[in-house]
Write a structure and sequence with these properties.
With 144 residues, the protein is mainly beta. It has one helix at residues 64-70; strands at 4-7, 24-27, 34-36, 41-51, 56-61, 72-74, 79-81, 88-95, 101-103, 108-116.
Length: 144
């Protein structure tokens, strides 16, 4: 599948790091360092604009290394880029650590995954058929 892309950053196009990767790294397209203080959130531009085919989305997800080593994650994970959005892809980062974190120009800040989606049509009914789970959720089965 080919996706139209405009790259207004000085960096290479997002790409897969390994043959088995499904996520492409997105880089911070900033002129000056950004300090993300503890519990602070900021929108970081990438300089990337895409036009996805209908029934596709791009998901913006955290990078595991940033999350475990620095407490940096994507606040609305996964962030969804709809097929009709053609604006700049920005990443909403939050610092969940107790220490300030500095984002430098070109830092890999998130990963983008392209997925095919299905569009549903609602069918209104008066009630839903019972299941063995019913309304059980939010940890009702325990951790072991």
């Amino acid at each position: 599948m080919k996706v139209k892309i405009v790259n207004k950053s000085p960096f290479e196009l997002p790409s897969y790091a390994t043959k088995g990767s499904v996520g492409m790294d997105l880089k911070a397209n900033i002129e000056e360092d950004i300090i993300l203080n503890s519990l602070e959130r900021k929108m970081i531009p990438t300089g990337i604009f895409i036009k996805l085919p209908k029934k596709y989305e791009a998901q913006i997800r955290p990078r595991s290394g940033l999350a475990i080593k620095n407490g940096i994650t994507v606040i609305n994970t996964p962030g969804t880029i709809d097929s009709d959005y053609i604006g700049e892809i920005c990443v909403l980062l939050v610092n969940l650590s107790n220490e300030p974190f500095t984002i430098h120009k070109g830092d890999r800040i998130a990963q983008m995954i392209i997925n095919k989606t299905k569009i549903c049509k609602w069918e209104s009914v008066d009630e839903l058929k019972k299941t063995t789970r019913d309304a059980g959720g939010f940890g009702h089965t325990g951790i072991q």
